[in-house]
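Deliverable D5.2: sample structural annotation.
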Amino acid sequence: MTPAARIQTAIEILDLIAAAAREGGAPADAIFAEAMRARRYAGSKDRRAIRELVYAAIRAVRSAPEHGRAAMLALADHDPALAALFDGAPYAPAVITADEPRAALGVASQALIDLFDPLVGPGEHPAMLARAPLDLRANRTRIDRNALAAMLGAGEPIAGTDDGLRLPAEFAAVQTPAYGDGLFEVQDAASQIAASAVGAADGLTIVDLCAGAGGKALALAAAAPGSRIIACDINRARLQQLTPRAERAGATNIETRLLNPGQERAMLADLMGAADAVIVDAPCSGSGTWRRSPELRWRITPQRLARHRAEQAALLTLGSSLVRSGGALVYATCSVLAAEGRDQIMAFLAAQETAWATDFGAIPLDIGRRAGNGLLLTPHHDGTDGFYLAHLKMS
């Protein structure tokens, strides 16, 4: 493919990604992969170049553009070499005209920025879209992180974690024998910290209420092989991913429980008031993960945010009902929006008849900043995904 043809292809893929963002469709990575399968004539160099163009536009443009050309023109206005390739040749984009619409650049729309936690000032914005490193969690039941780093020939310990190892983003860790042998999992440092905040110990019953594919459940199981971990979710496809991961890691203390929407309380009746700890890693906007999935900021609307907040509140209420007297409730969201973090916990505490105490001592970290009744981690301040974390103890 010619360089100009690559640009035109990137524009066409951006059209699809922007439409999916507006309509709640497939994620950008899936759309890109499908688009490349439909263009089998594109070589590996073409695919890499097109991907770089697509994601450069996604990272630069603050909200879903009207069409892909508007996003690419926004880049071309600042890159003469790129603009010169809009030459109207066969398979190339049409020549640029001055009055064409351009997508607006920036970290996010002002309306969305206004929703950031007060701790996330303008100086933090660039880091929210920088490329993330590759974080691993060594499976401590089989290897420690120093030995894992020596085996991989790369990696530095991550501050604030017991098992975290940070590598360059391009390191192909999952292609190594160590991955197949269950010596590590790919997991961002913030997620590792959230799991450690639970305080897993042998003999405890711990419920991971929104387990997804099981990253935190696996971390809890490794930290306390003698504990009982119940990993729950309403998404069958995601929860089914946990079983082979647990087998690979040798985690035999994890139970999975698929919940039917609307019937969660009945399906957890045997655990009511019986759990030593519950972690609620609630569905959210994903605003803390823009480094990895920058198109997520194109998907946030007032309506979608309202649905997330309602889900979070319901899950906190459900999770709290599972905790025994003296037990712990850990709330986590990969979000930097106040409404999904400090405001959500404040509202929960205000509505509770049972007494809950904020326990900062359960998260003995030198990173993160206090945000209301919890901690906020951000890419700029902590080098992690954006994450809100609160540890509450039932009196």
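Annotation notes: The mean pLDDT is 95. Residues 3-23 form the longest helix (21 residues).
The annotation will be released with the project's public dataset once the embargo ends.
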